Amino acid sequence: MLILAVLLIFSAFGGAAQITSVTGDAAFVADNPTYNAFSESFDRGSVAILVRGDITEPRTIHAIDRVDREMSTKANVHAVTSPADQVRQEYGRIPDSEAKIRDVIGSPDYTVVQIVFDTGLTQQDERPIYTQAVEATDWAQFPAGTTVTVTGSAAFSAQLSTLIQQSTQQLLGLAIGLMVVALFFLFRGVRLRLLPIVAVFVGVIYTFGAIGYAGVPNSTMTSAVFPILIGLGIDYSVQFHERYEEELESHPPREALPEALSGIGPPVFVAMLAAALGFGATWVSTSSPSIIWFAQTSIFGVLLTFAAGIIVLLPLLTLWVRRKDDSTEETQTPDRGEDDAPTTATATQSQHDSDRVGLVGQLLGRSARLLASHPVLVLGIALLIAVVGFQASGSLDTLADTEGFIPQDLPAYIDLQQFRSVTGGGSSTSYDVLVTGTHLKHPTTLQWMLDFQHVATQAPLVQGVDSPATLIMQYNGGQLPRTESGVKRVLETVPEAQRLQYYNDGRAHITVYSAQDMSTQQALSFLQNTRESIAYSSPPPGVTAEVTGTAAISTPSIVEQINSRNVTTGLGVLFVFILLLLYYRDLVKAVAPLIPMVFVIGWQNIYMYLLNIPVSPLGASLGAMTVGIGAEYTIIVMDRYYEEKQQAGVSRLDAVQTAATRVGKAISVSGMTTVFGFSALVLSPFPILSGFGFLTVGVVFLTLIASLVTLPPTLVLLDSIAERVTAMRSS
């Protein structure tokens, strides 16, 4: 098994090398025909080089000209525009006279060199162009006193991609470090107590390989998965480890291993499937690629960390036990006479059990018995708090602005903000309309574009419209030609690079400009106003106009994800319920583990409200995650309850106490180590991940409390009801 584990590690390295990253709004844009058509024809990324200083200084224009010429030769660059183009067009060269330069471009205190890419490029294709632009500005030797800032979509993507990789590695290392501390202090009384970390780290390596082979890219959201996986994977390994140690007390390793796996394996396996289904509910309830990648990575992770617990932890532990020959000592029976044999054996076993479970286990067992003795009171209080939480959910703030997801001190973001403040604009203030159909160059269609411009600019938040009609009027003395052939003659006079921004591949492109720094609600209103303006202006028959582009798709996608959080949570509950019903074929056993999770779903809203944690697209999936993750604790306690209840002469309260005593410590250790793992997210440089870290830490802690406090009375209450129903049916 260990040889197989090592071979899989080497195989995983090959998959990990294939991982790509997607950043920004593009991570929230789902595949659709309109966007694909727009991207193919008009969606050109760009790099903007902001030059501030004495622009008319000949040395400055010469440096701009060198950048212009250098970048024009690079692959995947469609066009480069700069004031050097205007000066060259006027004089055929760059003159050394500041007066001549001023006559052409005036006396600006800043200018922009725009590097426009070819269409159809991925973010991976665009990033080298940004690097080349930075190198070109260094090589061009701008004079002292001139400030040069390289910004744009590719700059943003490149820096975010690097930061995501660094953040993933840092969070992974931090989570492992916290796990080591947690296991060292919490997981006492067992051999090789840090061994679960080895197993879960191998599982994380497998996960990297799996997402690489499956083509799942890394993004801001997916970087949150790995601390979560460490927390979840530790759960599986700790449960295997703890039960194996328990069986080694009375069996040699060859017998203890199958006994341990047959006892703890099925409930942990079902719990792992429940966690996978919780993430699966997030997958099927959203169209946002970033959230789908998060769910897919999480599903791979829980499956593979579970597998690593079996093929790494258990073989290593077995080899260690055999080497130390612990089983010989533990299974030896001391010599004793017939008279004192039962008493001595019983006393020894009792002392063994007491030492094994420790003070924490005994305390958990007694608490569970006390709580289970008053099921109506305990569950009534839990339900009341949950109802308050459900009422508070409508008062929670939301985080839907993608710029709020990223570190505000990211150099690319600071450069973008400077660019906006200096130039008064930026790519985030423009939205795209794709026009398709027949006769797109006919005067009737162009007149509709002017009508749309008039209607749209009367709507709130719309500040301007740029369309093929305005381009043609610019090159035709402010008038529209009366015939389609006349329109085509005017277009022939337009430079090709400019013409392709408006007409390409039989499609037309309209740009609608909005107010800067709109809130999420304002952006949604702006998009709705634009769509209503299109409908009101009535495109000619055979012509279709649709708002599209990353900015127009990402914001509604994020808001939809947040608004659908109740649906996602409901699907998570349904999926896990079906799983438990199919596995146990018992309604009580299918319902009991879910009741504490329903309480937690309500409680977490109070936690978010008190700490002022907004609902993000990642946090919107937490309800389904809570059900999937928390089901592990409740399933393990419930399984042990029914295992103990089968013993002769054991009452429901006795079974509850024994179950909480024997597995309560294990789930407490695994729960607290999960909290430690999730807490690594709190230190993420990404605000959305940091907030998610605060949220998950609290929710996992609440889940652990719900499992230990509300599950015992739930089991006793439902079990007693089930027995009464069975008795009534029998009579």
TrEMBL record:
It is a multi-pass membrane protein. Residues 192-319, 625-717 form the SSD domain. It is found in: Cell membrane. Keywords: Cell membrane, Membrane, Transmembrane, Transmembrane helix. The keyword Nucleotide-binding does not apply. PROSITE patterns: SSD. Gene3D superfamilies: Multidrug efflux transporter AcrB transmembrane domain. GO terms for cellular component: plasma membrane. It comes from the Archaea. Coiled coil: none annotated. The chain crosses the membrane at residues 171-187, 194-215, 221-239, 260-285, 291-317, 370-390, 567-584, 591-610, 622-642, 663-686, 692-718. InterPro entries: MMPL_dom, Mycobact_MmpL, SSD. The keyword Membrane applies. Residues 327-353 are annotated as: Disordered. NCBIfam families: 2A067. This is Efflux transporter. The lineage of its organism: Archaea, Methanobacteriati, Methanobacteriota, Stenosarchaea group, Halobacteria.
